[in-house]
Write a structure and sequence with these properties.
The protein is α/β, with parallel strands linked by helices. The protein has eleven helices and eight strands. The model has no long low-confidence stretch (mean pLDDT 88).
Length: 263
């Protein structure tokens, strides 16, 4: 319950009288109580989940030890969140009563729960959050299909070098360090290969450079790119890397690469 937003949302619902309410990730400012406001007015509520934070405080990184990659189906994974593990990781931030209240709100006041991927829907359902529909994230592919990859290669002096693009947010859970370790092995076999990292050269990029060691000049950082520049980067790459090490709900990086026809 957020007392600074609930009155305003109540006023908006009363003034426009919508036929339905569609909410996206109301973890913070709006608070789950705003869903109750709509339900109290008999307004159908649709909630789209873009991550697992209605159940897990952070990223979902725990995979059951008895699951062997390549055997069975993903639907067989028992994604049961452990309160004990969350307590160890989050300590004083972990408040079990809050979780119970959140689940009650979601069960009572959401008519349709929507996930952006099948795997996220499986995880949410296994942990008591009703999620009966899947609507994948989407992009308009046409601007990507006409992007000038050669202009990007020229700007960053890539020439004809085989290029791997990392277009996501630089972080540990996005797999930045793991990608750097893998790419160091690639350079041993293909010395002319280049790893292009979009975004600012922050501490994560520096750690990636240290992992690459003597091959650090194989990594090219672009700093901030315009929307058009991002499209050109995807078109210029030979491979797009999406090495997340957590339950990635739906990484748009993969879709953007596919829109350019880049593996």
């Amino acid at each position: 319950y957020n007392p600074t937003t609930v009155p305003d949302v109540r006023a908006v619902l009363g003034s426009i009288r919508p036929d339905a309410v569609h909410a996206h990730n109301v973890h913070e400012f709006l608070s789950y109580h705003t869903l109750k406001l709509a339900a109290d007015k008999s307004i159908p509520v649709v909630l789209t989940y873009h991550d697992a934070m209605s159940v897990e405080y952070g990223k979902v990184t725990d995979v059951p030890e008895d699951v062997v990659v390549g055997e069975g189906t993903l639907d067989s994974l028992e994604y049961q969140v452990s309160p004990w593990d969350q307590l160890k990781r989050n300590r004083c931030r972990y408040f079990p009563l809050r979780n119970v209240l959140n689940r009650q709100y979601l069960k009572r006041y959401v008519d349709v729960g929507v996930s952006v991927s099948r795997e996220l829907a499986t995880f949410l359902t296994r942990n008591g959050v009703p999620c009966s529909r899947v609507v994948h994230n989407g992009i308009d592919p046409s601007p990507y299909q006409n992007a000038d990859g050669e202009a990007f290669r020229g700007r960053f002096e890539l020439g004809d070098a085989p290029t791997v693009l990392f277009g996501g947010r630089l972080s540990y859970y996005k797999g930045a360090r793991h990608l750097a370790r893998a790419f160091s092995s690639v350079v041993e076999e293909v010395p002319e290969a280049r790893l292009v990292v979009t975004g600012s050269a922050d501490g994560t990029a520096e750690r990636m450079t240290r992992i690459l060691g003597n091959e650090s000049d194989s990594m090219v950082t672009t700093d901030w790119l315009s929307e058009e520049g991002i499209k050109r980067a995807f078109a210029a790459a030979d491979v797009v890397a999406a090495p997340s090490i957590y339950l990635e709900p739906f990484g748009l990086t993969a879709a953007e690469g596919m829109a350019c026809g880049t593996p």
